[in-house]
Write a structure and sequence with these properties.
Strands 2, 4, 5, 6, 9, 10 and 11 form a 7-stranded mixed β-sheet that branches. Strands 1-3-8-7 form a 4-stranded antiparallel β-sheet, with no helix packed on it. Strand 5 and strand 6 form a beta hairpin. It is built from no helices and 11 strands. It starts with a strand and ends with a strand. By secondary structure, it is mainly β.
Amino acid sequence: HVQLVESGGGSVQAGGSLTISCEASPSTYEYCLAWFRQAPFSEREGVAVLATDGRTSYADSVKGRFTISKDNAKNTLYLQMSSLKPEDTAMYYCAADRPWACSGPPETYDIRGQGTQVTVS
């Protein structure tokens, strides 16, 4: 069973950049991967998806500012965030699921990590 562990969260000033990571074990080669976030008193929001064929998709709110990528050798998923805004403040979770479930929202994926906090002020 795949396990996901996020890291790299922290506090950053508005306009700054931050990269968060998600280490997977064992390999997630056959899984689609994604990031979603949840701000206090808000619903979960899908942020970015990396499909098994390498295609990526992003929420409109982060398009052009965030980049999802994966290092297969390290079994690690990344989310590079730039031009950060206070409204990006949230707990960020990585998630994984089998290809047949990947058309659904990332926040519904079967496997998720414990989250890493990102605070933008």
